[in-house]
Amino acid sequence: MIIDTHAHLDFPDYKADLESVLSRAKEADIGCIINVGTSLASSKKSVTLANRFPPVYASIGIHPHDASKVSDQDWQALESLVNEPKVIAVGETGLDYYRNRSPHDDQQRIFHKHLILAKRHNLPVIIHCRDASDDCLKILDEHKNGLLKGVVHCFSGTAEVVKKYLELGLYVSFAGPITFSNANSLREVAKSVPVERLLLETDCPFLSPQQKRGERNEPAYLSFIIPVLASIYGLSVSDIQRITTFNAHILFGIGETEYEGKIAYAIRNSLYVNLTNRCSNMCAFCMRETYPIVKGHHLGLKKEPTTEEVINAIGDPGSYNEIVFCGYGEPTERLDVLIAVAQFLKSKGKRIRLDTNGHGDLINGRSIIQELKGLIDTICISLNAETAEKYEEICKPVFGKRAYPALIQFIKDAKQTIPNVQVSIVDVPGVNVEKCEGIARELGVDFRVRNYNVLG
Ligand code: SF4
């Protein structure tokens, strides 16, 4: 299911064929559409549409263009809509100094009112900002607290500006312009938005994607935007659909998402296997306990799966390039299941990777590397620090001082036994990347720096 988080289906453009537009959206797997009000009348129509069509939800707001025309009665009428059951956001609101259709003072005053309304009702805010990012950020900064949440829609600014919106905890969405042939710089900016903060939108009837330029836009045309985002992020189309749907669900509370931990889950063309949530580390950067989500997959297991359950969850592994034992937990905590599943996968001729913290010997009380020989093609071991002291500080291993020397020995053993060995660190402050790279070089294995918070 896909979610279009910004549409204007109440506009006259859809008067003649709205039902056909919605039917094409359904065929394109658009399961929810947020219809965004731009005036009091448009907000009322959004609520009417939402009540009439199950996939449609309403956001209520007054566009900055009309800020100077908002009377007290208008505002009271808008506020009264907020309790309608399918109203799930406030906006679009913000600042537009490009068209300057209302004086800046009026725009800012009405923007403040929207933010207060949204926070009072614990709703996300849908923000429009054009040529006004300094003032927009200043106002948002005044309202920042645990209750400010929302999305900057149809972002078209710089990487520096988007960073500030992200620091405020906001989501970002890109509409059709991201597909334009001359939009290389916008696509570069999009790379700096973590996919966990990305939302999809069409802003229809405006901003049709490249393939439909000059035509009326509609929700089904997300199908032109998603492949471009997939290419920007180096992910698959289904990854972008799943992740953005999850993000929209978290922000707006609409759509469906899974809350049950997955045993096997796909990212790009790899299948990941989640054997356990147990781990002999408690890394400072690990979200295992608090937010076990990776690329829109929920990995919090209710119970550890048996070998049979893992094989059933994998299904036909034929189409995947690689099977990865990973998940939110240390796979060698379940060495017997890992080996049995790896044997099954090898019988199918699959390439297998193991992502591990390198504590397998300590966990199992014996050297385990020979048991992995011939099964694991690639092993990625988290080094995470240049010294035992730093490792203890960052990873808080249950094995205490024994952990780091055992990890180094495991890397040496892996180098002798497994075809491809890579060590990695996470770029948290205080880790000496050069020294870690030097250790990898000395051990004769590959080295990779992983971005903090980029998982999967
Ligand atoms: S080793 Fe991996 S799973 Fe274990 S605590 Fe660290 S980041 Fe989390």
UniProtKB/TrEMBL annotation:
UniProt cofactor(s): [4Fe-4S] cluster
Keyword terms of this UniProt record: Hydrolase, Iron, Iron-sulfur, Metal-binding, S-adenosyl-L-methionine
Lineage top rank: taxon: Bacteria
Chain segments annotated as coiled-coil in the UniProt record: none
Pfam families named in the record: Radical_SAM, TatD_DNase
A single GO cellular-component term on record: cytosol
CDD domains in the cross-refs: Radical_SAM, TatD_DNAse
Ranges where the Radical SAM core domain occurs: 265-456
GO molecular function: DNA nuclease activity; hydrolase activity, acting on ester bonds; iron-sulfur cluster binding; metal ion binding
Family the UniProt entry places it in: Belongs to the metallo-dependent hydrolases superfamily. TatD-type hydrolase family.
Protein name: Deoxyribonuclease
